[in-house]
Specification:
Low-confidence stretches: 7-40
Radius of gyration: 23 Å
Helix content: 25-40%
Family: Belongs to the glycosyltransferase GT106 family.
Mean pLDDT: 86
Organism: Spirodela intermedia
Strand content: 5-15%
Number of strands: 16
Largest sheet: 5 strands, parallel
Protein name: O-fucosyltransferase family protein
Shape: globular
Number of helices: 19
Membrane topology: Single-pass type II membrane protein
Number of domains: 2
GO cellular component, one term: cytoplasm
Distance between the termini: 21 Å
Length: 439
Amino acid sequence: MPLFGGATCRPARILCCAAALVGLPLLLVVVLSENDPSSSNPDGSIWNVRRIVEWRPCRWWQTGTHLTALPATSNGYIRVDCYGGLNQMRRDFCDGIGIARLLNATLVLPKFEAAAYWNESSDFADVFDVDYFIEQTKDFIHVVRYLPEDILSGEPFRVDCSKRKGQFDYVEHVLPFLLKHRYISITPAMSQRRDRYPLYAKATLCQACYKALQLNQDLGSKGSKLLSLMPKPFLSLHLRFEPDMVAYSQCHYIGLSSASMDAIEGARGNRRPFTGDVARYWRERGKCPLMPNETAFILQSLAIPAHTPIYLAAGDGILELEGLTSIYSNVYTKSSLLSREDFAQMGGNTKAALDYYISINSDAYIATFFGNMDKMVAAMRAARGLHRTLFLSRRAFAVGVSKGLAGAELATAMWEAHREDYIMGRGSALPDCFCETKL
């Protein structure tokens, strides 16, 4: 049986989709009926399209064949400094693990620093299973819970590589500090080229990030409870249309409620929205977050039935959410599934961890953005053999609207654009640890 109720296509309905581009009419009335091209598609929903490419974990790091053995002694100790939201911290930690192995250093478990928007910090053990991590990485890298007494009292020498650009060489620029100070903390470079790592360092990163990081028992239990409350099968949707997200994009939107406009203005600061040709060019490059009603339109175009249970992997600050829920009414959130007491006790890291847990275990995953969480979720789903993963194309939608497409024509354009992405497995995993597999 096809996922989410088979080849059932959308019932006739009218969807008002906010115009994406400055200067276009306020509303595009989009009529989706049984006679539109996407609803008559014989393949049913997007998930029934036959893929010809998938990304799967590369055998070379899973088998460990021909990899350099872990040296008996190390050059010192490295702690990875992790900042931001949980998924950003996880990304930096994964990068730091590869760096530590590259430099033949012993890894000190990190402390996740406070996120500015959560005002929360936590130890590694507050999120992840320490024993499991150490066991899974024992043949790849030396890991310690605590520093030896002779350096326990000292602070690490801090090496901030986060702003480095170009072909940054950790061996040349960081190893001398490690050898001199024995204990350093490092913030990985955002633009590093991991493809230049030797295989043993790449394998360490891959093993640690995709095989060794699992939520601790407490968070795992909460995630399992939340997962059990979701109707099956279900779609996890990572929708990004929060005030700070919209403000940061510098995109202009027409037809928003006054409450949404006020929230965006409050988060905008000195980032004023682009206007004129710059705004049009910016949007057509796919830089503007999809509104919830635009997201609903694309889901309909992909023949995702309106009765599909959807887990909204997002915070409670999504603007204009009724644009989605007026079409897809079976939308669930953490706050709707959990008791008020349980939800109130959760910090930001816990909420992010639960969204991640549900998303890597959902029957399908769709994201409207390609941020840190989406990259991690897509890769973990690929590692687990779950390939119903798709990133909605903001660019394709904006270009279609700019060309004057609406209704069935726009729906067909969305189907074709996303069908091609799904067939080819585009954006579904991280190439460093995953290999393209022809089906």
